[in-house]
Design goal:
five-stranded mixed β-sheet, single chain, alpha/beta, binds pyridoxal-5'-phosphate
């Protein structure tokens, strides 16, 4: 019997089979374990990623993404670095979307060249650009979808067909979607990465990441992790597992709040533009409706009053908090010009559609009427 996503999120692969067994898995806060004497079998040691909390979290994420295997690690960046290093070797070329998290781009630019891995970028606005970017040594294609902060949705079907033809791996950072809204493997991706810090954990109290893929790929990620040392702490793994249990109902609320907020913002006189794939005028609304089971809780807006209006508004918000990150139960606001896009000049950001005055909002699971009222009063105070 194949269980639904919510049942898999709550129960994972854990079997409770005895009277007196704890219903909730204990935290195995132990670096090492009693190993059999005189035996060449598996050595259990927490840096190896085989602590029961680490194993259970990997199993649960694999079950949610529909993957053969998965591994939990200590951060989203750790997951990206290990997954790509597992696929790519010196002399290989990585074709990456240009619309990616700034630190991921920094990793590619400052570290991959030193490893002999060539990286080039494609503007995914026109799907034809992908083929034009391919080189004879292209071994992998990397995308984020939904993208930050314009909430663009990349058609994974087109990309997976290209990758099949090339014999390259399609690697998707699906952090903004969570497996509730999109399961990239169903659309032909080979590897899925998450910053579990975000929706998977959902409570803004853990840094974690995971990689999902085939057994051999995850085996290679595990081998590298043992050497490079990104094992997740057992307590952090336990917290993410706990967070996952409510993933489905949290995502339902994030999706509903995202839609309600975007719809409201689109009518507000102080908002010049709204970026939300659930709105019919979003450039990727049609792709999003095919690919996603929910449009998510991330919304981008540009204020008519530009940068100064943002600062004034932020000071007056009381429900929403000014902090980077996303995907938690609380509503967070940030300005890409100071965070994800700080490395770009003002002109470069404008060319990308991210002018000063652009605000990224991670809708939490509070009552959406309260979130909207919070923004209403902040806008009113700015206008006064
Ligand atoms: N991928 C995306 C899309 C992100 O937004 C982030 C962090 O903001 C990361 C990866 C890195 O995750 P972490 O902060 O868990 O290392």
């Amino acid at each position: 019997m194949v269980f639904g996503l919510s049942t898999r999120a709550v129960h994972g692969t854990r079997v409770i089979d005895g009277v007196g067994e704890p219903v909730v898995a204990p935290v195995f806060q132990s670096s090492t374990f009693v190993n059999p004497i005189g035996d060449h079998g598996e050595v259990r040691y927490t840096r190896y990623g085989n602590n029961p909390n680490q194993v259970e979290l990997g199993n649960r994420v694999a079950a949610l993404e529909g993957g053969e295997s998965a591994i939990a690690v200590s951060s989203g960046m750790g997951a990206t670095a290990l997954a790509l290093r597992a696929v790519l070797n010196p002399g290989d070329h990585l074709l990456s979307s240009a619309w990616i998290y700034g630190t991921t781009r920094n990793l590619f630019e400052s570290e991959f060249g030193r490893l002999g891995i060539e990286v080039s970028y494609v503007n995914p606005g026109n799907p034809r650009n992908w083929r034009a970017g391919v080189k004879p040594n292209t071994r992998a294609v990397f995308v984020e979808t939904v993208t930050n902060p314009l909430m663009r949705v990349i058609d994974l079907g087109i990309l997976s067909r290209l990758c099949r033809e090339l014999g390259s791996a399609l690697i998707v950072d699906s952090t903004f979607c969570s497996p509730y809204n999109c399961r990239p493997l169903e659309h032909g991706a080979d590897v899925v990465i998450h910053s579990a810090t975000k929706y998977l954990n959902g409570h803004s109290d853990v840094i974690a990441g995971c990689v999902v893929g085939t057994e051999p790929l995850i085996g290679e990620v595990r081998r590298l992790m043992k050497l490079w040392g990104q094992a997740i702490d057992p307590h952090a793994a336990w917290l993410v597992e706990r967070g996952l249990k409510s993933l489905a109902i949290r995502m339902e609320r994030h999706n509903a709040n995202g839609m309600a907020f975007a719809t409201w913002a689109a009518t507000h006189p102080q908002v010049a533009s709204v970026h939300y794939p659930g709105l019919p005028d979003h450039p990727d609304h049609e792709v999003a409706s095919r690919l996603l089971d929910g449009y998510g809780g991330m919304v981008g807006i540009t204020l008519v009053g530009g940068g100064p209006a943002v600062a004034e508004m932020f000071k007056r918000l009381t429900v929403a908090t000014h902090a980077p990150s996303l995907g938690g139960v609380e509503t967070l606001v940030s300005e890409p010009r100071y965070t994800s896009h700080a490395a770009f000049s003002r002109e470069e950001r404008e060319a990308q559609g991210i002018p000063d005055g652009f605000v990224r909002i991670s809708l939490g699971i509070e009552d959406v009427d309260d979130i909207i009222a919070d923004f209403e009063q902040a806008f009113a105070a700015v206008e006064a």
